[in-house]
Q: What sequence folds into this?
């Protein structure tokens, strides 16, 4: 009965989310006058495929899309490098203050990002990084959660393998690249998915540091598009833009679903 109840609740929740997504896709294909029709009509009277071209024709949507892809991929790669190096250090090296430093890193997880946005923005302003990709990428270049995840993963690598690599003349970085890296590819893939999804959906920080179309990311661009298309005729275009914005995240999740679940389990201490 317990398993049946869990299955029923999971199915109901999945259907609810699927219904919202289906309604968004169908609304993106409706003529403008049908979106707010009463009673509600799920199926459009005719399919307006041109709605998916309108964001590119009427707004800098392609630029927003390219900015989000560039920022998301760059931030993800930076996090893979910095978090793996830090996790390797905390896991396999002994030095004074290591445990204290790791506790400090974990303590930052309890600080809401909104608390540090004001001093962080002041720093970015002084550096001249407002309205630049550096202001969008550098502050997100590492993650306390990512460091914790990689440290937990690297802890599972036997010390005997590292000692054997040292005896064979391998240096620290070569040991990381040839021994540790291949053994923690699963957690690294999970970390990459976490970081990319988080940055793809980030809105507040890009809104603060990128006010021009040349550096706006998709969440900020969609908000600006919504402000300029408040009428019923603009809703299908906004729905189409939102559906297009979902494509990379849905594709990534479907392709790395197993790694995503593995990452959740590891972060919860169930590994």
A:
């Amino acid at each position: 009965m317990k398993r049946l109840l869990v299955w029923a609740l999971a199915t109901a929740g999945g259907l609810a989310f699927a219904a919202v997504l289906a309604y968004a896709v169908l609304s993106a294909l409706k003529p403008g006058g049908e979106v707010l029709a009463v009673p509600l009509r799920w199926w459009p009277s005719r399919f307006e495929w041109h709605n998916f071209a309108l964001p590119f024709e009427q707004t800098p949507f392609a630029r927003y899309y390219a900015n989000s892809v560039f920022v998301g991929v760059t931030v993800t790669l930076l996090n893979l490098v910095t978090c793996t190096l830090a996790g390797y250090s905390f896991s396999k090296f002994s030095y004074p203050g290591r445990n204290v430093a790791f506790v400090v890193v974990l303590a930052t997880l309890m600080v809401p990002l909104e608390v540090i946005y004001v001093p962080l923005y002041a720093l970015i302003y002084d550096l001249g990084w407002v309205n630049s990709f550096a202001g969008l990428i550098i502050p997100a270049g590492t993650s306390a959660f990512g460091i914790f995840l990689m440290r937990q993963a690297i802890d599972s690598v036997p010390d005997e393998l590292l000692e054997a690599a040292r005896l064979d003349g391998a240096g620290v970085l070569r040991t990381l690249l040839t021994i540790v890296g291949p053994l923690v590819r699963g957690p690294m893939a999970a970390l990459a998915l976490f970081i990319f999804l988080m940055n793809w959906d980030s809105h507040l920080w890009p809104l603060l540091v990128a006010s021009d179309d040349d550096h706006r990311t998709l969440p900020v661009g969609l908000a600006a598009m919504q402000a300029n298309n408040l009428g019923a005729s603009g809703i299908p275009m906004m729905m189409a833009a939102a559906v297009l914005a979902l494509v990379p995240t849905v594709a990534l999740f479907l392709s790395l679903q197993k790694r995503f679940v593995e990452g959740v389990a590891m972060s919860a201490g169930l590994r």
Remarks:
- Residues 60-267 form a domain with the MetI-like fold fold (CATH 1.10.3720.10).
- The mean pLDDT is 85.
- The first helix runs from residue 2 to 28.
